[in-house]
């Protein structure tokens, strides 16, 4: 159906957040939390999450609110989305401080952060995306993508694109890259991904790839 919104960009972004928290947990368990690469992985994770939530809060939820003004259930859901973002902010702040101090309770903190973020992402995917599918159009969704790109700028895109495809499945990678203009795919291959790999975020293994976590 041509009038269906394709949520690929949202799903691959959410999956990259989940993947980073799995990597963070592995780093904490292995006693690598104080390494430069893990701290750089954390900084990138919080930057990506900040951009993602800011554009949702400033662009997506307000536009959705206009479309569902007379639907209390939908308005309550959108209030939940904002409240869940608000609940994550102090947790992220506190975790950053604990990581900096290499606190003894990092493992428990990762567990809490993962539970809160997972709950939010699932809630958004299970309830907000179907609402978006119902009341928005593919043209609206494109506009949301443009708002995201404007917020990221070229520097942000240079970090975002290789971060998304780091460890992604072949199918998701194909779907994700198909959403990007050809020149962006080319610059990613030639410049952004090589630079991203050199940063070795989260302290990857010798092969340059993180071992996948057992399901
Ligand atoms: Fe999202």
UniProtKB/TrEMBL annotation:
Gene3D superfamilies for the chain: nmb1532 protein domain like (1.20.120.520)
Residue span(s) of domain Hemerythrin-like: 9-132
Record protein name field: Hemerythrin domain-containing protein
Organism: Actinoallomurus acaciae
Lineage of producing organism: Bacteria, Bacillati, Actinomycetota, Actinomycetes, Streptosporangiales
